[in-house]
Amino acid sequence: MAKKKAKKAKVKKPVAGGAKVVYLGLGSNVGDREEYIEQAVFLLGKIKGVEILRRSSNYETEAVGGPDQPQFINAAVSLRTTLAPHKLIEELHTIENALGREREVEWGPRTIDIDILLFGDVILSEDELQIPHPLLHERLFVLQPLKEIAAHVIHPVLEKSIEDIYEEAKAEGGHEKYDDELPGFKEIRKGGADDYERW
């Protein structure tokens, strides 16, 4: 994976109590990929109740799954927010739509893709939203930028650090599989991981 120098994101004033630290994955493989990433980070910082904390460098990666398509630029962002998970995902969809995201082809090319990877210690399993992201531990292109800004953060289901998960996935070629019977993990994977259109 080719690492590209990141631009600094403007940080807003801290959000008041009751906030969670959230980690997002960003990807783009259409048009000016780096510019779409920058625009997405800028718009994230404009969401009321969101404070951007850190962002990773940009990484150029091969597309995984879906039809033949151009390489991606991937990055990760950490933020603090008072928004609930469902409200935050609505805001992320609004940004994707504003930047021309189309969903006509499953796992197809996209101007921008923004996914919730971790939301504090929240574990959520619903048809439209699973937290932590059910494919996080299998995707090197997501784990590498995430490791840059969250190496010691613990996955609330797997109970391992992001750095350890990354190293295990790397050793297995990016396809590390975990026991579906782990507490909480079966619920996250149930009813949607294979159809999780965002990846």
Summarize the structure.
With 199 residues, the chain is an alpha+beta fold.
CATH-level-4 superfamily name: 7,8-Dihydro-6-hydroxymethylpterin-pyrophosphokinase HPPK
Mean pLDDT: 78
User: How many strands, which pairing sense, and closed or not: the largest β-sheet?
Assistant: 6 strands, antiparallel
| Span of the ends, CA to CA | 18 Å
Based on the coordinates given, report the CATH architecture.
Answer: 2-Layer Sandwich
Overview of the molecule:
There is one protein chain. By secondary structure, this protein is an alpha+beta fold. The chain has a single domain (2-189), classed as 2-Layer Sandwich (Alpha-Beta Plaits). The chain contains five helices and eight strands, in the order ββαβββαβββααα. It is globular. It starts with a strand and ends in a 10-residue tail after the last helix. 38% of the residues are buried.
Kindly list the characteristics that best describe this protein.
single chain; alpha+beta; 8 strands; globular
Furnish the topology, listing elements before pairings:
Elements: E1 2-4, E2 20-28, H1 33-44, E3 50-55, E4 58-61, E5 72-81, H2 85-98, E6 113-119, E7 124-125, E8 130-131, H3 140-150, H4 162-171, H5 185-189
Antiparallel strand pairs: 1-4, 2-5, 2-6, 3-5, 4-5, 7-8
Helix pairs in contact: 3-4
